[in-house]
Amino acid sequence: MTTPDLSTRINAAKTRLDEHVREIVAWHFDPATGCPFWLDYASKLGWDPRKEIHCYDDLGKLGGFQDEWLRGGPVRRWVPKGLAHKPVYVFETGGSTGVPKSRVNIDDFRIDYEMFSETLNDASFPKGADWLMLGPSGPRRLRLAVEHLAHTRGGISFCVDMDPRWVVKLLKKGRVNEMHEYKDHVVEQGLTLLRAHPNIQCMFTTPKLLEAICEKVSLVKAGIKGIFCGGTQMTPQFHRFAREELLEGKAEFVPTYGNTLMGLACHKPFDPADNYDIIYHPPCPRAMVEVVNFDDEETVVGYGEWGR
Fold first, then answer.
1. Domain for residue 279, yes or no?
2. CB 76 within 8 A of CB 66
3. Which domain holds residue 197?
4. I need a labelling partner for 149 at 20 to 30 A (CA). Which of 61, 94, 123, 255 fits?
């Protein structure tokens, strides 16, 4: 892609982002459609966000969003009046930093995975193929999201739950053998489904579970053509190992990163020139990711610098 082409696309993305911000702010701070939390927040500002916020950079006027606002408390304060007639889901974070944060959700997980579906290669993730989801479900959105992805592509989703909170507890208590037994229990259930349902050709799992299941069986010989894989353990080394060794260079491997608060970040299409680097793109304009100064969340750090 030439520099002018890239600049044009960047400017178009910025325009979409600013338009999205104006639309969202107007909707959430409207007494007829907004949620109790933001309407109460606006009443204490002394100014109307709908009149003062015109672009993404203006969001700083609202101040930083506090994690504690999402920990505990009545979740109905986050349900917008304009969507109160629709079914509401509540999803939680992992809880590794304290009390889990909760997020209400209506259609967001469906939108995320419909967008993700458009990035998948039909040869590796065939339309009409069934899916195996081997990973966290429970209070997270992942099971419903992968299920919706399978339905979007004309397939059926089979799910085996893995509870990461229990794994963390076992590790903290030094009960490593029990952790491995639990991992084997999850993997065995996945293998049972693979053997029973030959139309399972697509899969989601985490790096640790992918490695564990590949110790038991060749996923390529089991009929798997494409895997999307997510988790904080994803590294360039694992990317290469998964693509070349675990999947024998014969099945597609798509790294992803998602969390309860942001949604799903897709990976840049595989290019050997990237040397297996992990390159994610957030679901703009619906979510943005910035690396900011450790002490000043309003200051974005430069390329190559450390931040949070």
1. no
2. no
3. 109-262
4. 94
